[in-house]
Design goal:
Strand content of chain A: 15-25%
Structural class of chain A: alpha+beta
Strand order of the largest sheet of chain A: 1-5-6-11-10-9-7-8
CATH architecture of the largest domain in chain A: 2-Layer Sandwich
Number of strands of chain A: 16
CATH superfamily of the largest domain in chain A: Bira Bifunctional Protein, Domain 2
Radius of gyration of chain A: 28 Å
Number of domains of chain A: 2
Oligomer: homodimer
CATH topology of the largest domain in chain A: BirA Bifunctional Protein, domain 2
């Protein structure tokens, strides 16, 4: 015998108690997605590396698990869903009814330093609308994220959805004199604003090439809470105005969903992925103790990048790791105990076959467990209690002579003798 | 724009219509497992390669997807569940209540030549009992496999569960003069009996070293249908007698489950995995057109192999690929259409916000879809039909003046005007 083999770092074993929690979260995710008319889909866990050669952003690319198969092809264990979704849309672009409203609840891998809120293996729900430019779609997916948070018991005092628009931010940066071809680079720096000290952030902007005055101006805009009231549209580029319009549309629709109170404009929020083109959103705990709980946005060019025709899309992902941490922190994790409708116990080992027959009768309607260890009655009852049996059927020699068994209700403690024949009708 | 990127060979895209089928199968799997008192669990998709260094059998090892992570560790994308399960049992061996009754419905990868019934990415339900030597556990897991087949609509004319016992087969081989340390090797040849022509099988036995007479004797036993009636126990080794006892126990219990009629003794069925120690079983289509639909058995040494204490276990896996082929072949695949409770249509784009408000009212109880493309009413109704809307709410200027909307029942064609206020009570 060798020593125990350990699981891979940054992964989790889901014993039944952990799996019950995971299933609880998955059920809320799925239920909300179905409520808004989304259909479940999935794609392969492993994709060709070409799917990530453009537009994913350098952070994700540096974290990908890659492998070479026996045919020499370079493959990736998917770190995110959107490129697979774009590939599947591109493949059947003409046949698919628009808008395409898809969701998936799946497993992903990223090579990260395991730390609070970040694991190497994690799950996400992805919710996407493809095939429409209407900002109502942006609002609808954002509404599903908020509804998930509300279903889990969070309130507006605990979480906030930060929204922004890439085109608007681009317009603002142009207005400040940044060259068009350096905007993505600058956005990546802005993305770090909340993660570093202000001094370091200003230094990064200076290193990028902004002067002291521009840095201050930029900082003022990024931190402005009333930008939309104060903005002078005429000073924005055409793209900036388009972004402003999209953002205002999103706000208007969030109000009609009755969910605007959970949202907040944040011009410094850009998301660390390069394929977003318009509105972007992130769900955060208000105290900013954790990383983002969910994030997404518009990606109007992505389907074309993977070989389809240009096709507008908007979507987001919510991960399980930060969500669970946040649920525990705020006491939102429900108690989920094991339970079973019936446990069939026997007074003697020789009655095992009879116990099986009775279990089979009850399994027509109920979930039923049975002793598989030839244990004495007292031990069986202890086990029945540990699996959360609601009722126990005791099969005994004496009762069997009258074709009866004893049923004990574990909640009330009440016992009754019942004809085996009648178990079919329970 | 570059050309379309193709998915990896041997994988499947699950568009909503395929995902509905997969979910249907998963629901039957899960429901049966819960009915018999099994709890869902899961482990990481990627495990350390050490978990497969012993006891898995050469076929699986040659098919594993391996990768080296950035820390230089050699990892495996799991080709099967049982080693993960054994690792998790070993890790908490003392705390876990016995018997451990676990199931999982998960994704696996094997590098195989994609062909009918074999893909590189596939799903399995795994059902296991760990911690008891009682053959009642062997019978119970076999019963769950049969119940799944029955739930999917298959009859005893369409599938059969072949059962055997490794110890008994070992005893028979000893009796025929095979050396003890060559039995596993010979079992691997016997495993191929059904997959090659008889002539080739005899040749393989001859190459192994059996003489003509022994080959004929062995063939007679392997094909015997009434071995259990004819066997002379006294001539068997002690281990052979133990195996015979286990097999008879399994048959006895399958009878008490009322499911023996779906089973058949097959002494030539050994399963291509080395860790099985006692009873083994496989589910097959009767015509043997397909590969095995499910397979498993007793693995009493496996937990010790991965670093735990010796601990008896029994389990099986059923895969999705052959099962789906078999369902289609026998016409058991149900029609699963997309459907939604309500679709909210508008007579004008300006009413989109009102439509959202009404959708939100109905979403308290129902699944509701809405137009996200600013389409004309006729196109909205066509879309509503394509998503299987049961009822359509039409939001129009005139009706809104009376705080009403029109509801059309798509099944009966009936239309009625309803106060928006009343939608809360529907």
């Amino acid at each position: 015998m060798k020593g125990k083999i350990e699981k891979v770092r940054g992964t989790r074993d889901f014993y039944p108690e952990e799996k019950r929690i995971q299933n609880f979260i998955f059920d809320v995710w799925r239920d909300v997605a179905l409520k808004y008319g989304y259909e479940e889909m999935d794609g392969p866990l492993i994709e060709p590396i070409e799917l990530w050669h453009e537009k994913s952003g350098e952070e994700i690319e540096s974290q990908m698990y890659t492998l070479v198969d026996k045919g020499g092809r370079k493959l990736v264990i998917r770190p995110e869903m959107t490129p697979t979704l774009a590939r599947m849309v591109a493949q059947r672009q003409r046949e698919l009814t628009k808008p395409i409203k898809w969701f998936s609840i799946q497993r992903f891998w990223r090579y990260e330093k395991p730390q609070s809120g970040r694991l190497r293996e994690f799950w996400q729900i992805n919710i996407d609308v493809v095939g429409t430019e209407s900002i109502l779609a942006d609002a609808e997916i954002t509404a599903t994220a908020i509804e998930i948070m509300l279903r889990l018991g969070f309130t507006e005092k605990e979480f906030v959805v930060r929204i922004n628009n890439r085109r608007l931010l681009g317009g603002i940066l142009l207005q400040l004199g940044v060259q068009k071809n350096r905007i993505i680079e600058l956005c990546r720096i802005i993305d770090k604003k909340d993660k570093v000290a202000e001094r370091n952030f200003r230094q990064m902007l200076a290193d990028f090439g902004l002067d002291e005055k521009t840095i201050s101006k930029l900082n003022d805009v990024l931190e402005s809470e009333d930008y939309l009231e104060k903005v002078d549209e005429k000073k924005l580029s055409e793209e900036g105005r388009q972004g402003l319009y999209e953002l205002k549309q999103l706000i208007k629709y969030m109000k009609s969903f009755g969910l605007w109170k959970y949202c907040k404009l944040d011009l410094s929020m850009v998301r660390g992925i390069d394929y977003y083109t318009g509105n972007v959103m992130e769900v955060f705990d208000i105290s900013k103790e954790f990383r983002a709980i969910a994030g997404g946005g518009r990606y109007d060019d992505l389907v074309a990048v993977v070989g389809g025709e240009r096709c507008p899309g908007v979507g987001y992902a919510m991960g399980d790791v930060v969500l669970e941490l946040f649920m525990r922190k705020k006491g939102k994790m429900p108690k989920l105990e094991k339970e079973i409708d019936f446990f069939i116990a026997t007074t003697s080992e020789s009655l095992a076959e009879k116990a099986v027959e009775i279990a089979q009768l009850l399994r027509k309607k109920y979930n039923v467990d049975i002793d598989l260890m030839n244990r004495k009655l007292a031990k069986q009852l202890k086990y029945a209690d540990s699996v959360g049996a609601k009722k126990i059927v005791i099969v005994g020699e004496e009762e069997l002579k009258q074709n009866k068994v004893k049923i004990k209700d574990m909640k009330t403690g009440k016992e009754e003798l019942v004809l085996i024949e009648e178990l079919k009708m329970i």
